[in-house]
Amino acid sequence: MKVLVTERIAKEGIDILKNEGIEVDERLGLSHEEICNIIGEYDALIVRSATKVNEEMIKCGKNLKVIARAGVGIDNVDVESATKQGIIVVNAPDGNIMAAAELTIGLIFSIFRYIPQAYMSCKQGDFRRNKFKGVELYEKTAGIIGFGKIGALVAERLKACGMRVIAFDPYVSDEKFKKYGVEKVDFDTLLRESDLITIHTPKTKETYNLISEKEFKKMKKGVRIVNCARGGVINEKDLYNAIKEGIVAAAALDVLEKEPNFEVEKQDFYNPLLELDNVVITPHLGASTQEAQVNVAVSVAKEVAAVLKGGIAKNAVNLPAFEKEKLEEVMPYLELAEAMGKIFIQAERAFANKIEIVYSGQIDEKAITWLTRALLKGYLEFSVQDTVNYVNSQLLAKEQGIEVVESKTEEAGKFKNMITARFTTNEKVLELSGTVYNNEGRIIDFFGYKVDFKPEKYMLLIQNIDKPGMIGRIGTIVGEYGINIATMQVSRNKKGEKAVMVCEIDGDLPDEAVEKLKNTDGILRVTMAKL
After folding, report:
1. Kindly report the CA angle at 76 between 71 and 80, in degrees rounded to 5?
2. Where do the ACT domain residues begin and end (predicted)?
3. Position 204 pLDDT exceeds 80
4. Which residues on adjacent β-strands are paired with residue 359?
């Protein structure tokens, strides 16, 4: 068994592999072409962030069984291509959570007490302290956006400073808020009441530009903002303007939407925020502690060793290795189950305290556990900060306080196989059903309405009053924004009452267009769903 390591990882990780009798080949600084030329010899590949593991490289890795990213994210690995080749992809989702939380606290103190600015002033021989009159954390309100593992660690530390801590995360159970003594609030309340806002969400289509001009205008004047999560969650141009206008007193950013090359000494990177004296920017140091680097190296080394020894990786971000024929059979069901989870959470934006999944017909018993995990993965990807994968989704669901119930029945009506998911929220129970035919997943029941559509990348999910002219109005508004409706499914249970419409469209409909649809007479609800 041979492992190729293309970027530097801690020695402790290398030692774990060698102690398992695995040959480790550390070849740093290879070009993409050089890796493609040799990767066919190896059973595993370990990278960090610089190596771009794309489809070409994966196809060259004819013997690859596992690809490991020594870090939290997985942006530089083509997971879909690896999955198609039956290759497991693993990462180290918990390796740097303490490092990220502690950096957040350090940056908070920095912008409340102007520590970096005072240091630079002293370095330049200016010791006047009247320029650096700070603000105390004590008895101020801290607003945490994203109450996952890192958000909870930050909350504990801010409460120790005597702060009132509030948090917004609609996908976390009330029990978790109570456990940490944190007030659960809606997004607007957090924006209005916080003296400090710290962000701990993943970067998704839902959280991209989560804080922009509209949100800044709702904030308390003098608010301070910290982002150690992902670049792009804050609109940087709007942040710049909010600082210049005096809404934001100071900001600290460890991440930027466009980041420089961290490996070179001199570069021409520029961001207007660097001009502002009350902005602290650090070069993505969230995982840069000795402990975190050892943690991620040890974690991925154990995962790689487990896979190569025939075991199951705990932090697989795709699925365990199936035989090629079995993978082709199971894949449409996995994609369908994951899509069902994504459709519910985007359509309802509500926490489900119970998810019941019924498997009907001749679905492979061995695949059922992975189908459940796929459905939970789809649901949780839009609702938790943690990296969600097929292996950890059940554990994360349990941590969120979700009761998951599985059952199997031979009866599937007119279909060979069927998956039904019932989502119980505090207000109602909603049901989705799907099946696979012609090797393609189809949704056949959408919250009690009979439909038949294939989950697609961009979908408009609409609830409306059943009356003439609705289809035309919707088509006209979507067309105004240059987007074509590829397919449309319309369903009603009773004439003149509520109906549903599912439209596959050719692109992402702007928020402005979605608002226009919402304000159209006869439309009850609109969701722009993205798979």
Report:
1. 110
2. 459-531
3. no
4. 408, 419
